[in-house]
Amino acid sequence: MVWYAGGNLVYLVCQWLVTVLVTKLGGFGDAGVLSVAMSVSATFQTLAMFGMRNFQVSDIEDKYTNSCYVGFRIVTCMAAMVGCMIFSLVSSYRGEALLAIFLFMTFRLSENFADVLYGIAQKHDRLDIAGKSFAIKGIGVLAIFLAAYRISGSLNVGLAAMAIFSIVITALYDAIFVKRVSDYGFWEKGGRWISLAGETAPLCIYLFLSTAITTVPKLVLERECGGEILGAYSSIFAPALLIQAAMCYVYNPFAQIFAAHRAKRDKRGFLLLAGKITAAIVLLTVLILLAAWLLGDWALELIFGEMIRPYAFLLAPILISIAITSFFGFLCMLATVLRAFSWLLISCGAGFAFCLFLTAPMIDAFGVNGTSYSLSAGMLLASAILILGVMLRLREPRTTRSLE
């Protein structure tokens, strides 16, 4: 777990530094193209992942074989790429932007395929393989992207180098080392993919919608205000994502404890722990906003240079939207523990629809900050619905059916 957490942290920081370098070296124009590529690909990578990781590692009875999981991931990755490119073409992305989306999606899919291998490793208590891989990929991707970008002056050359490096590490490190832990194949004749897809479909839809809530406002901003404004917004948004990742470590370790409370029908203990974690998220949010008020402008200029100064006013609304998104992530964890999948779908669907229809009017009314206000509003609506769902599920008697 130390290897896994440490490797993930290195990977996240390096990914953030890629966005910083693009802004500093290529300006807000390249940053806007990169943001579009990241946003579009993030939505469709949920189809590749299919919500399968937690299902896979909890399949302790081996209902589905390793080869079934791996083969199904290959199918979902291909479907995700097709869907991503169709969406991009229909959305009128062309030229450099379309190529950037394709290259970044290729990079994401190499990581998504590696994820199913990490699931195999996790079932055999070898998450260190995944952690070491994340560290190698994070540092390597940052170095090779920087070299290719500086030498060529082209964002897409840098993205191509990044994608190729990730594919090579997945093939030469992940695939080989996981194979030593447990055997698997890339194809299983008569594989039970339809059954697997049916069982994991609700999780796939939930992940797709929850990701779309955060990406739709950015895509609307790009349509309304242009790529450079999106580049400036995304440059400030990128470091805030590190805060969201850090907040995940506040509540993720408690999933098993919540499950234990549920198993013992200890509603009071469940709610008491939930209240403490909510208080911790609120406290962290206050401290982060205080730090942003005191040091935000200085920190942004230190990272991005003086060109970011006219956009520093975007920081506080972005941080608030990230905090609300983190709280919603915590609620999603509770709903998963309670197997309240229908409430996950309802809340994410409502939040997505709210953002889809609200973002453009909010941008018209409040300018660029309308993007953050729309995201916050969508997440607040989704959170309110999910709180209701969690409370109703807690009132239900714990039966075998309710946990299926």
> What is the ordering of alpha helices and beta strands?
HHHHHHHHHHHHH
Query: What's the structural domain tally?
Result: 2
What is the count of β-strands? 0
| Alpha plus pi helix count | 13
Low-confidence blocks of residues: 399-404
| N-end to C-end Cα span | 28 Å
Nearest-integer average pLDDT: 88
The shape is globular
Distinctive features:
disordered C terminus, 404 residues, mainly alpha
Task: Describe the fold and architecture.
The protein has helices at residues 2-49, 53-57, 66-90, 95-123, 127-152, 155-181, 193-225, 227-251, 255-263, 267-304, 315-337, 341-366, 369-395. Helix content is 84%, strand content 0%. It has 13 helices and no strands. With 404 residues, it is mainly α. Mean pLDDT is 88; it is low at 399-404. The protein starts with a helix and ends in a 9-residue tail after the last helix. It folds into two domains: 1-191, no CATH class; 240-404, no CATH class.
Question: In brief, what are we looking at here?
Answer:
The protein is mainly α.
Topology readout:
Blueprint: H1 2-49, H2 53-57, H3 66-90, H4 95-123, H5 127-152, H6 155-181, H7 193-225, H8 227-251, H9 255-263, H10 267-304, H11 315-337, H12 341-366, H13 369-395
